[in-house]
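Tutorial, part two.
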Amino acid sequence: SDVGSQKKRVVTEEEWLQKWEMGNIGFHKEQGHPLLQKYLGVLLNGRSGLRIFFPLCGKAVEMKWLADMGHSIVGVEVSEQAVKEFFSEHSLPYCEEPVSEISGAKMFQSTSGNISLYCCSIYDLSSSIVGKFDGVWDRGALVAVNPRDRQRYASLMISLVEKNSSYLLVTVSYDPNKHKGPPFYVPESEIKSLFG
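Running the prediction step on this input gives:
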């Protein structure tokens, strides 16, 4: 199908912040995503104590779920409100500190140390700041990224994963001429060209 109507669509950082402020977060799943539960074995691949990355994490409940299993979670989210709501909704004490390499960025870390959420643009991150990951749960990031930024996003994600990592990606299928997005329609052919 034709994705021409979405190609030039741009959602600004301010629009995402406004969605959080207004509570317009229909993309948030209170119970966690059933596909993560279904494919958890693929993500973990028999391994324990993994570093798992949540791009554009919002306040995803799966971060706590995986941390409780003994994994180390790192997320990135532009909305400080979302990050603080994650910690408060799970009654998790945390500390907050500036990220010296990124102007204006903050890192919120659970006092247990196993959940670290960066509040900044995902494009400000690099492996020198956050390290590399054994797994990625991309539940709503690629489909939220502006279509013109997909190659940049995919290149960043590839640079953040270890050789034997697992990358779980959820997309949505619909007629892109009927919805302006986000979530944006990303055809399977484009996923293959972005990630190989």
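The longest strand covers residues 161-169. In part three we will examine how such features are distributed along the chain.
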